[in-house]
Each structure stands twice: as C-alpha cells, then as structure tokens.
Amino acid sequence: MIDNAGHRVALVTGAARGLGQAFAERLAQDGCRLVLVDLDDCAETLALVRRAGVVGRSAVCDLAEPQQIEALVRDVLAREGGVDILVNNAAWQPPVPWDRLDAATLRRMLAVNTEASFLLAQAFARGMVERGWGRIVNLASSSAWSPPPAFTGYITTKMANVGLTRALARELGDHGITVNAIAPGLTRTDAAAADVPAWIWDRVKEQQLIHRAGEPRDLVGALSFLCSDDAAFITGQTYHVDGGAVL
User: Fold this and answer.
1) What is the spatial distance between Cα 18 and Cα 1, in angstroms, rounded to a whole number?
2) Which of 16, 37, 128, 242 is an S-S bond match for 142, by CB 3.0 to 4.6 Å?
3) Torsion of CA 171, 172, 178, 180, to 10 degrees
C-alpha cells in the first residue's frame, strides 16, 4: 500500500529503543511511513522518524496479550489501510537458568518473541497478498547457533522464528511477499551495554571474525536491503549480522 505521498507503510515492534529504534529510523530515511509499536513510550523514536521527513505514529501494545494485538491490528487497518513492511523486532529475554525456567515465564517469552510475530504476519499479510507486494522481517539471534548459558527459553523462541520465517516464506512466495530473518550477534544497545558484563563482550569479540562490538547501525543496512525491491528474489533466509561469529 502506497499513500498519497508515495510512502510505503512499515510497522516496527519493539521500536522505543535499541535495534527497533535504529530499524525505524532507517526505514524512515528510506521513505517509509512508520507505525511504531512498543510496551513503552516511543516519543524519542517518533522524533527521529519525523526528523527524516516522513509521517510516523506510535501505539502502545503488550505483545504477550492477543487481545491487545487484535486491537492494534484493527487500529492500523482503519487508520493506515494496511502494512507493506512488517518488522517483528520485539523480544523479551530475561536470563533464567534452564532448571529455574517455569512454564509461565517460558509462555510469555514464546508469546512476545514468536506468537506475536505470527499473529501480526497473519493479520497484515492478507493485505499484502491483495496488493501483490510485501516484506516481513523476523528477528532471530546468532546465539541460537552458539547458545550461552541461562538463555534456554530465549534461544528456543529465536530458533522458532527461523522456522516461522521459512514456513511463511513457503506460503507467501507466489504473492510478491518475501519473508526473511536477521540474526544479530551481541549488539551494543543501551540495555546490553548496561546489563552485559565486560567479560562477555570480550569473549564474543574473540569469537567473531571482526573483533569489535556490534552496534545497531551495523544491522540497519541488512534490514533496508531485505525490505527493498532489490531483494524481491530472496526469501526464507536467515542473515547472520554478527561480525562472522556464525559461519
């Protein structure tokens, strides 16, 4: 769907900060009209989007709650008419040792990290099919290929996103819709910089072929490409943007 100004509509979850903020800013620079979704306030990201000269708005949504997702979808369809680009970036990733991971915590991780991605794709892909064009990008994680301790639940959801990406790519490939995943390595967002001990950053850098910490700006080019017409013949793939940690 292209609005009167020629902008495609892109929806980014987890857009208040970190990778989601960087993704939204880049898509705005690419000329997309943005819908920013997060459990927290997106005012900072909204300012960056508007600074790029395009229209943006935000919506508060707890992606662990299907009823809130349904309300979000109804609102977006009513106000925007549909979504051309869906970036399923939001994630909940508390570090919990495997022997202390309870069912409620695992279910919430699955709900936010994987179930919400499916529900949003299911809701917005219908319009993409009608228009014959769409881009869906899910977030996986390179940690699923080299699991650190205490992240069993998170890694389970991220590998599930790889399966979801492949399955949706199969279903939607003949309708002009591509579905791909980006698998970041450890990335220096504000939250990661505050929460991840220095020794883990050092160990990750040693494992990479590019021996520096990843930054949000390192991922936006991959997203921009996968959402472009240049990537029209690429689908079902997982792009590792991790400095060569996974070969």
Assistant:
1) 27
2) 242
3) -20
Of 74, 90, 94, whose CA–CA distance to 82 is shortest?
Answer: 74
Q: What is the pLDDT of residue 1?
A: 59
As a whole number, mean pLDDT of residues 32-58 equals 97
Domain boundaries, the chain: 9-240
5 pLDDT tier (thresholds 50, 70, 90)? low
Catalytic annotation on 239? no
> Length of the chain in residues, anyone?
247
Q: At how many degrees (to 10) do helices 152-172 and 103-110 cross? A: 30
Gap between the Cα atoms of 59 and 40, Å rounded: 9
| Catalytic residue, candidates 23, 145, 154, 239 | 154
CA-CA distances (angstroms) from residue 238 to 62, 142, 147, 206, 207?
Answer: 26, 10, 17, 23, 20
182-208 pLDDT tens trace? 999 999 988 888 777 888 888 889 999
CATH architecture designation of domain 9-240: 3-Layer(aba) Sandwich (3.40)
